[in-house]
Specification:
Elements: H1 3-42, H2 72-107, H3 109-123, H4 127-138, H5 142-168, H6 172-179, H7 184-220, H8 232-239, H9 248-275, H10 277-283
Helix pairs in contact: 1-2, 1-9, 2-3, 2-5, 2-7, 2-9, 3-5, 4-5, 5-7, 6-7, 7-8, 7-9, 8-9, 9-10
Length: 284
């Protein structure tokens, strides 16, 4: 096979990949703008108007109304703030806790034995079930939902961080730092952690997408955020009884949720390939 068709195919693949990444970035930027601007401008559409209940999409309700007459367009845009807050909050909590556990476990052998067995125990429980149990125990609220979703994600991040630290621990500059008498905290914070941040940043994108989806699941089954604060999960939960006559109540927030989760995952994959070029070479 000649090199020219392979080069052309590689060029088309790169162009398609660039378009997909650009589209994903635009979706994330659009949802972020909605999260920042929609609540101050449009409010949360919490006022009840039974005279306009279950109106189909059209003017003046672009996405229709729910069974209580609330505007689905406003609630969908306002729900973006809650969903993004959960995604970013869970990412931060997971990186701090999981990163610290993995950092210590990967460098201190005695701690590795204890901490990783605890992480293995948590990973043996299905993530959604563990999040549902924790959310039920802790009660509703934004912070408690973040904690409930973070706990199942921490072991995965800890194991990732541990693997990175185990490889970095064998580097010559670590041996040199030990030889000159550097303390363990100094080695961890100055030499190992900065070289492990790239893997954590990539992991944060996947955790964020997973957390947004988990929050929608918890809210949809009634153990997540209070219905007073719109999120995509509880907006869809309010329309499940009326799906046959008013499918738009679930369709529009579900579409926003799907697009955002896919876009974040695409950007995470692109970031991972940029950090590790061997992945893109392997795919080609």
């Amino acid at each position: 096979m000649s090199a020219q068709p392979q080069t052309a195919r590689a060029g088309r693949s790169l162009k398609a990949s660039t378009v997909v990444i650009g589209l994903s970035f635009a979706i994330v930027a659009m949802v972020t703008a909605c999260a920042l601007l929609a609540p101050p401008i449009l409010g949360y559409s919490s006022d009840l108007n039974m005279g306009e209940a279950l109106q189909p999409p059209g003017s003046p309700h672009w996405f229709g109304t729910d069974n209580l007459g609330r505007d689905i367009f406003v609630r969908t845009l306002s729900g973006a703030r809650t969903s993004l807050m959960v995604g970013l909050g869970v990412s931060l909590l997971t990186l701090l806790a999981g990163g610290l556990i993995g950092l210590v476990a990967g460098y201190v052998r005695l701690a590795d034995t204890v901490l990783m067995r605890i992480m293995d125990g948590l990973m043996a429980i299905p993530g959604v079930l563990l999040a549902v149990a924790l959310a039920s125990l802790l009660g509703g609220g934004l912070l408690t939902v973040m904690i409930a979703i973070s706990v199942p994600e921490i072991p995965r991040t800890a194991r990732l961080m541990r693997g990175v630290v185990l490889s970095l621990r064998e580097m010559l500059y670590i041996d040199a730092a030990i030889a000159i008498g550097s303390s363990t905290p100094r080695i961890l914070l100055r030499h190992i952690l900065p070289n492990a941040t790239e893997a954590l940043v990539v992991q944060a994108t996947f955790v964020c997408a997973s957390a947004i989806l988990a929050e929608a699941i918890l809210s949809f089954i009634g153990v997540g955020i209070s219905p007073d604060l719109p999120s995509w999960g509880n907006v869809m939960a309010g329309g499940r009884q009326f799906f046959r006559v008013a499918p738009w109540i679930i369709a529009f927030p579900g579409l926003f949720l799907s697009l955002l989760v896919i876009a974040i995952n695409v950007l995470g994959d692109a970031l991972r390939e940029r950090i590790d070029p061997r992945l893109s070479g392997r795919r080609a």
